[in-house]
């Protein structure tokens, strides 16, 4: 019997380790003396510790936290176990437990871990205990992240004490670290804004905006402009962002609020929220660099400082999704607060988690509800269609896409994705003429879009139609994405269909290097090898294709038939005789 999920397998391993520990205790005792309770406890603690380590390495932090926590109860003075259990508890969002473990860790160890100190500083700052927070910063370890984070912690403590000049000075060391210059500049803007120094805030906001305009920064700057009496500048900023990101409901909310008049409250109104912004920026940067564990931990500390920051909450959920912590991610997205636009973003993320959990009926119901709520938007219907298309429910997918298309009053370049999705669905339903029409409609919106060029070009080539035109389309796609193995495969297949077998072999071999596990590419290369007279190599590629095509019955049957009978019909190759 196989396990239904990695978590089930890990739980089973807990049982095995526990039983092994118990058996070891039994074997070590004599018939005249029963095993001692301390021996049994030690065996159980070892089993739980081993299981916790295995679970942590597998990314199952919930199981790891539970098992290491149980081991810690048996060995409460173990500093390494305490540190590890704290980090897991924090990562899982068990704030009260993590705070208690952080206090124990800092009290037990010389200095303690930096993340533990950061969490305790955050808790003190949020509660207004600035003296306690400052005392903790003074005792911070000097290694690791301390040179980068200590100035941020100390600066916002100074802000909380209304010592703004000192707060600005404390950030000076970050100016010499390239990775922290942008964070420093944004903190200077927030501090100046909180101080009421609009000129300094404007200067710092202008400087940080030169490095890019993510959603949170656009909202912060626009909020500052509105409160500074520059409503027209805020409106220009919001509209500019919306032009570049047409589906941003959060920015639509900002414009709608601005049009109603009035002065909004500051998005960052306290020192705790200011430090939360800094740690949110840090967590985002760590996540982009692939440091998921550290990003998750500092994201959690940011939420301790400002639990209502919606983008920080969604960032934590995104990190959890990348670590296959889907249930925990779903809980984060469901507890996101904020404007209707922010909640819309969080609900779309819920859909993705539900799909990963194979709860597609729930995902579909949520998307259908969202589509009814916003009768002019297309994104919920587009995602609904995508979900149905991936699961081969093509009639339902087409219904969703057509409903989305009916909402579009005037097609814009960004609507190519809708036509493209419709085309793929129609093609899968066997209606190639309608699919071709949809593809051409998409190309009319985005004439150089590589995915469109590749799909239409390959469709022509594979059907033996308009071969030269199809090849030219694929070549345009490959020129834009030369490292895309699927585009390169399309080009190789076009060369094969045109009888350029030697070029086809060379191109398909390159495609296989880029995407070695794709069954279609292996199958195509097998055909090209056969046409080139390299029959043993052809059979090897077909064998690989048959093995890899477990979800494509047609491709597997085709590859198996060629393994048995060879390539019955071959192209007329240039300078290469057709295989007998």
Furnish the topology, listing elements before pairings.
Layout: H1 6-28, H2 37-57, H3 61-74, H4 79-91, H5 95-108, H6 114-126, H7 130-138, H8 146-160, H9 164-170, H10 178-195, H11 198-209, H12 215-227, H13 231-244, H14 249-260, H15 271-288, H16 292-305, H17 310-322, H18 326-334, H19 340-356, H20 360-373, H21 379-390, H22 394-406, H23 416-428, H24 432-445, H25 450-462, H26 467-480, H27 485-497, H28 501-514, H29 519-531, H30 535-548, H31 553-565
Helix pairs in contact: 1-2, 2-3, 3-4, 4-5, 5-6, 6-7, 6-8, 6-16, 7-8, 8-9, 8-10, 8-15, 10-11, 10-15, 12-13, 12-14, 13-14, 14-19, 15-16, 15-17, 16-17, 17-18, 17-19, 18-19, 19-20, 20-21, 21-22, 22-23, 23-24, 24-25, 25-26, 25-27, 26-27, 27-28, 28-29, 29-30, 30-31
